[in-house]
């Protein structure tokens, strides 16, 4: 690792750690779920929270166009966070503190709208962000560095989840949720500020590399024409379909069917989820650099099968802990492996467009499957949803073993963009 890469890795780890702390402090599958439940939101409304992630996947073309200049990308990305994305958390916090004046109905609208906008910003900037981080490090160490950053993010998330659980232990006062969101706002600002110190190699380019909208669209079409990439996308969509349970693990263990656990305990169990994600990111980032990231993709599906079985078969705190732990492993493993699989499978030089089209295709699954899952849960119950998810997860594992090839295979053509660090 070069001195510049080591410096950038340090900035990345610091920024990701602060971000992970604030995300876990207001995790939507626990904190927002419990808050909306306290406000009397319907189960179908709560079940739509994961669909925001899918909807956000249709927005990255906006971000790619806004951040297409490699020399200006760092500054523009940071300003985007400061001015549009991070303030959503502050608004949600202030609204919760003013719940008596707003009323439950208006507060639910603000919370859902605020989280939808926050998630939309995340989707808009996601492809450009991953492309920016990827070009800071060589392929030989990229999985290790990004896995370390996301792993530390998840480790910090353990403290964030425990903090929110401790804050809610005295009772689910709406004002307490407001302070949690305001604290998350502060840590999000610290997170993005850490990336100000990144030494971007794009500053040394003789000419700026800024693809036009036509270049972006053409590159995206070329990506979709690649059969190996389409198989990776199918594997990711199937895994999403098999694990669209989102907040229903928390709801299951809050109900009598899961043991009727206290809300504060379920929120604290989010620490197990972030802990599993941390270990998975660090472990499979390193394994992916050595053996290819297809391994992590397959293991992620194995973890989600384990999480579903735990929720179906084990009641009480032990079952909740195991289901959350394995759910975290799912998120961490699939996140690090899928991102690197997409980055390494790019057949052209506009890698942000490759990431964009992948996110948009997967976004369809991320939008539709949680909606279908919410309907199944509302009509047939949460256990029925988990049983259906288990069958689809088995299909996802079979497809991955049968069809997906690692991009590092000599038969798969990959192109590293001109801006990649050397």
Layout of SSEs?
Blueprint: H1 3-25, H2 28-38, H3 43-47, H4 51-56, H5 60-66, H6 73-85, H7 87-97, H8 99-102, H9 104-135, H10 139-168, H11 174-194, H12 213-224, H13 227-241, H14 248-254, H15 263-268, H16 270-291, H17 294-313, H18 316-344, H19 351-380, H20 382-403
Q: What is the name of the CATH class?
A: Mainly Alpha
Helix content: over 70%
Number of strands: 0
How big is the Rg? 20 Å
Structural class: mainly alpha
Shape: globular
Our count of domains comes out at 1
Name of the CATH homologous superfamily: MFS general substrate transporter like domains
Query: Termini separation (Å)?
Result: 10 Å
Q: Provide the CATH architecture.
A: Up-down Bundle
Low-confidence residue ranges: 418-422
Main sheet makeup: none
Q: Write the CATH fold name.
A: Growth Hormone, Chain: A
Mean pLDDT: 85
Count of alpha and pi helical runs: 20
């Amino acid at each position: 690792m070069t001195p510049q890469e080591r410096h950038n890795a340090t900035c990345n780890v610091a920024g990701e750690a602060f971000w992970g702390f604030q995300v876990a402090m207001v995790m939507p599958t626990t904190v927002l779920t419990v808050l909306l439940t306290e406000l009397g939101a319907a189960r179908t409304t709560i079940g739509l929270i994961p669909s925001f992630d899918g909807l956000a996947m249709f927005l990255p073309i906006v971000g790619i166009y806004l951040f297409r200049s490699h020399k200006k990308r760092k500054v523009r990305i940071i300003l985007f966070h400061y001015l549009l994305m991070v303030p959503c958390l502050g608004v949600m916090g202030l609204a919760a503190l003013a719940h008596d004046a707003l009323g439950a109905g208006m507060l639910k609208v603000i919370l859902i709208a605020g989280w939808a906008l926050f998630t939309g910003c995340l989707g808009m900037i996601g492809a450009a962000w991953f492309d920016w981080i990827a070009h800071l490090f060589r392929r030989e160490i990229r999985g290790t560095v990004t896995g370390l950053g996301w792993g530390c993010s998840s480790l910090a998330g353990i403290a964030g989840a425990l903090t929110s659980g401790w804050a809610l232990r005295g009772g689910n006062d709406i004002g307490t949720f407001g302070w949690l969101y305001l604290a998350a706002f502060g840590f999000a600002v610290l997170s993005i500020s850490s990336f100000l110190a990144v030494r971007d190699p794009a500053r040394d380019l003789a000419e700026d590399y800024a693809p036009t909208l036509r270049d972006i669209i053409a590159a995206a079409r070329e990506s979709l024409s690649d059969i190996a990439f389409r198989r990776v996308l199918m594997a990711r969509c199937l895994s999403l379909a098999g694990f669209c349970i989102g907040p229903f693990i928390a709801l299951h263990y809050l109900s009598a069917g899961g043991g009727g656990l206290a809300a504060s305990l379920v929120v604290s169990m989010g620490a197990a989820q972030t802990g599993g994600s941390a270990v998975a990111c660090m472990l499979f980032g390193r394994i992916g650099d050595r053996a290819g990231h297809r391994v992590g993709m397959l293991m992620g599906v194995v973890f989600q099968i384990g999480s579903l079985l735990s929720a179906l078969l084990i009641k009480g705190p032990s079952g909740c802990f195991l289901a959350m732990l394995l759910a975290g492993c799912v998120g961490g493993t699939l996140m690090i492996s899928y991102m690197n699989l997409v980055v390494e499978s790019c057949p052209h030089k506009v890698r942000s467009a490759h990431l964009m089209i992948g996110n948009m295709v997967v976004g369809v699954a991320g939008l539709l499957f949680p909606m279908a899952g919410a309907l199944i849960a509302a009509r047939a119950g949460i256990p029925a949803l988990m049983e259906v998810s288990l069958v689809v997860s088995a299909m996802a594992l079979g497809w991955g073993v049968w069809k997906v090839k690692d991009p590092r295979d000599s038969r798969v053509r990959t192109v590293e963009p001109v801006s990649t660090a050397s």
